[in-house]
Specification:
By secondary structure, the protein is of the alpha/beta class. It is built from 13 helices and ten strands. It has two domains: 69 residues, no CATH class; 236 residues, Aldolase class I (TIM Barrel, Alpha-Beta Barrel). The protein has a ten-stranded mixed β-sheet with strand order 1-2-3-4-5-6-7-8-9-10. It is globular. The N terminus is likely disordered.
Amino acid sequence: MLGMIRLEKTSSPPLWQQELQSAFTNLRDLCQFLELPIDDIAQHNVASDKFPLLVTRSYAERIKKADWFDPLLRQILPSAYELKQPPGFLSDPVGDTQATALPGLIHKYHGRILVIATGACAIHCRYCFRREFPYSDNSVNRSQIDSINTYLQQNTDVSEVILSGGDPLTLGETKFRDLFNSLINNPQVKRLRIHTRLPIVLPSRITTDLLDTFSSTNKHVIIVIHANHANELTTDVADALFALKSAGVTLLNQTVLLNGVNNDPSSLIRLSQRLFDCHTLPYYLHVLDKVAGAAHFDCSLSDIHATYQEVQRQLPGYLVPKLVKEEAGQPYKTLLSLD
């Protein structure tokens, strides 16, 4: 059954890779599946040409049929709004380029480095701050792993490695395990953090082999998932997250505040409560990174403050994510004050 967690070892190709190969990449096919009539898809197609449509069937099945305003649909549907280019929206809004120390290695913050494991994803979120990132020049390959370990040895203050992308969990089992072990076995690395959307959009990726990789180390493994709406957290997603927690993984979530998706107290409160049901703590609530093509998702600071204050009023502190924004060149994320 599509979307079910299979924890037994599988023959090649595994279920999750089969599902990934069957993801929607054609706008007309997606609209037919979701019963969305489009008389003129030209503008949508232009947006998709600039940043291709990609969404797993597992995720598409959670979208309400015939509803243009479904909060999950709005995250993945190419839109004519993306073609507008207001001032202040950039191709590299968070300063990844200026913080690149080696191909595939970004060093912004004290004590931790970020490794671009791959440029591949299982879903193309329309607000992605790396939608124009030059992955072909920056994704890690086997020959670069030695350079990264040498960099670690030269920067002895670094104790945490973050795997990002793209999505690190789109790597095959062997390639991911080799990368994981190469980094986690470095004596100075105390924590390995993985930023991934796959437990949400492709929960079948959480295989026995992957769980074995995580449980094979006594060092801290942290997975930061990316859920923006409670409707994303279906039963199969909850099962995948429970399997990760049972393997000793610390689970955190980061959310992007998106106009028309979750920019209201009710949506954010439901999300935090559902995350806790799924053994995951809310971590960050990000103000939108001002990437070109995503201006229609932006929210005003006054609305953000009013929404966040209501979330604080209704939830206990451990369910309230930190409200932050990322600013290029800054030594840490900026906590937004409500004063």
